[in-house]
Design a protein that fits this description.
The chain is mainly α. It contains 19 helices and 9 strands. The strands form 3 sheets. The chain has a 4-stranded mixed β-sheet with strand order 1-2-4-3. It has a 3-stranded antiparallel β-sheet with strand order 7-8-9. A two-stranded parallel ribbon has the order 5-6.
Length: about 600
């Protein structure tokens, strides 16, 4: 009963959306109807006279103009390419077991099977209609002549594509994945209803028309035409937005009710794994993958990494007992023929979406394995940041710290001595020229400098050094001297569309930035920490490491240095080096010794 009620509610809302379309069509043909009446009256000897002749010509001209505008808007709405989510397509020959599971699930739910399967580097799953001609040809038939995973060619050509979050395949077991996908696959039933499908096409067409009309860089005449098109499309969208939202809510309710009979108990447990997968995926991207992307390297096994991250999380939270038996079951990634290749493709797409990296690997954009991560990413990041820190100190005219031996080179003591003192006037560049670091507060002092989001104001020298570091990083990224902003290339053919058809504008990448830009205070803390780590590696035998939940880490005597950040913040915010120097002595780190930089 609940399923029928949801479907009926969705259909009634779909009819309301179609009525909006019908009213728009009626408004467009209304002047033409009036012109026909006037012309028929004149031909029949009625409505004669000079006034009626003028009215006939005026109304006919208006009707022709309105019809031309309506036809133009209709063509744009019908032909505009709707937005498509960037995904990694999975052909049936690359995952026959996965297609078989989805097909059997559709049979149990008595709904059409999805026409194809694709993966997205995110913790979500949904159905996506890709029947528009601009999205390319329909899914290819399998080698035995069958029409993909569906039970008939007619259904395969119209059924939506099933998009699955790639972390689900690696973290979930087969039964859990089937339970999570049950309400999603059940949505193909309402999607096949003609009124709902027509309403969805109309709304997607309006959205695409607004996007087309909002494209910048047009000539003044075209901009005027696009402004009128955008106004009409938005007016229609405002008229059917509420009905479309309630229609989708009814579709979801009907799909959820239909899926109640499939693995209901297991689905409750699987929903807990969805939340865990999301938490682990977010930590992995922000703490582990993002530092590698900034170095011009992209981890090629992100989905395998999320399993390690969640296993570590369960161990730390004392949940290992329940997960131990669960991890002994068959993982859902076994449904793929080549899980490693699929993981690599999804990892590259994740780097493009969340960081704006190129579509293809290259000399400045190469993959990195987890075993190579500490040396190739962590150590290189530390030494690159430490080298930049000393270049900025050189530009500020900061002299090297006196060395007890005859060896010369960049030392940690130079950084500590510069940030420890708090003179009345901060050091100026050697040339006295103006730079990005010459920022003054309302009272004219550098000591008034406070970074957005900072809890404490920086001391004078820290404020100047932080500002100069921010300017240097911005200059390097703008000139392409650092791999933090890799050059964008043509978008990949990730959704089965024509190769020349891009799914997004490269200038809009990254589509989903993970974090806001780092403040100057954050940059200074990162660079000072990097210098400390370089000194620890070169003078105390420490080593770079990687924590699955916290990202790059320093291993001193085999243990992770977890309290380093607070000591560095005490130095740059208060100018107090005592906590950091005490830790250096305790760890056997010699700040007066030179370190190796890149």
């Amino acid at each position: 009963m609940g399923m029928e009620a949801g479907a009926q509610a969705a259909r009634s809302r779909a009819l309301a959306v179609l009525r909006v379309r019908g009213r728009a069509l009626a408004v467009a043909v209304l002047p033409a109807a009036a012109a026909v009446i006037l012309l028929a009256g004149g031909a029949g000897g009625h409505l004669v006279g000079r006034g009626w002749d003028v009215a006939r010509w005026a109304v006919s001209a208006l009707a022709l103009a309105v019809l031309l505008v309506a036809v133009g808007i209709g063509l744009v709405v019908a032909r505009a390419r709707p937005a498509v989510s960037p995904t990694v397509p999975i052909a049936e020959d690359r995952a026959p077991d996965l297609y078989r599971m989805v097909r059997e699930l559709a049979d149990r739910l008595d709904v059409p099977a999805p026409s194809a399967i694709a993966l997205t580097p995110d913790c979500d799953s949904w159905l996506e209609d890709r029947t528009h001609p601009a999205h390319g040809p329909p899914p290819h038939e399998s080698g035995d002549g069958t029409a993909g995973p569906g039970r008939s060619r007619r259904r395969t050509s119209t059924a939506p594509v099933l998009v699955i979050g790639s972390p689900f395949l690696w973290w979930m077991r087969v039964g859990e994945l089937r339970a999570v996908l049950a309400p999603v696959v059940a949505g193909t039933g309402p999607s096949a209803q003609p009124d709902i499908a027509a309403a969805r096409r109309f709304v997607r067409g309006l959205d695409a028309a607004v996007a087309v009309a909002s494209t910048p860089g047009r000539c003044p005449l075209t901009r005027g035409v696009c402004a009128g098109l955008r106004w009409v499309a938005r007016l229609l969208l405002s008229g059917c937005r509420e009905h479309a939202a309630l229609m989708e809510r009814g579709v979801a309710a009907a799909a959820a009710e239909r899926a109640q009979a499939v693995d209901y108990g297991l689905r409750i447990v699987a929903q807990e794994q969805v939340g865990l997968a999301y938490a682990g995926w977010d930590r992995l991207l922000t703490r582990v993958a993002l530092p590698a992307w900034r170095m011009g390297r992209w981890p090629s096994r992100l989905d395998a990494g999320v399993v390690a991250a969640l296993t570590e999380l369960s161990r730390r939270d004392r949940l290992a007992e329940g997960f131990a038996s669960r991890l002994g079951e068959r993982p859902a990634c076994d449904l793929l023929e080549e899980p490693g290749a699929v993981d690599e493709a999804a990892s590259l797409l994740a780097a493009r979406l969340f960081h704006g990296g190129p579509a293809e690997p290259g000399p400045d954009w190469s993959p990195v394995d987890w075993q190579e991560y500490p040396e190739e990413v962590v150590d290189r990041t530390w030494r690159t940041d430490a080298a930049r820190l000393h270049r900025v100190l050189d530009s500020l005219g900061v002299r090297p710290a006196p060395a007890p031996t005859a060896s010369y080179g960049p030392t940690l003591s130079r950084v500590l001595d510069h940030l420890s003192s708090r003179p009345a006037a901060a050091a100026r560049p050697a040339g006295g020229g103006e730079g990005a670091g010459d920022r003054t507060g309302a009272d004219g002092r550098h000591g008034a400098h406070t970074e957005p989001g900072a809890t404490e104001p920086l001391n004078e020298r820290s404020a100047m050094l932080a500002a100069r570091l921010g300017a240097e990083v911005a200059r390097e990224e703008a000139t392409g001297l650092t791999p933090a902003a890799p050059a964008a290339t043509a978008a990949p053919d990730t959704a089965g569309q024509h190769p020349a058809t891009a799914l997004w504008d490269d200038g809009a990448l990254p589509l989903f930035p993970l974090q806001p830009p780092r403040t100057d205070r954050d940059l200074l803390a990162d660079h000072v920490t990097a210098m400390v780590c370089c000194a620890a590696v070169d003078t105390a035998g420490a080593s770079p490491g990687m924590d699955w939940l916290d990202g790059p880490s320093l291993l001193v005597n085999g243990e992770r240095a977890a309290d380093l950040s607070s000591r560095v913040l005490s130095l740059i915010e208060e100018g107090d080096p005592t906590p950091l120097r005490a830790w250096l002595v305790e760890s056997g780190i010699r700040p007066e010794k030179p370190v190796r930089l890149v």
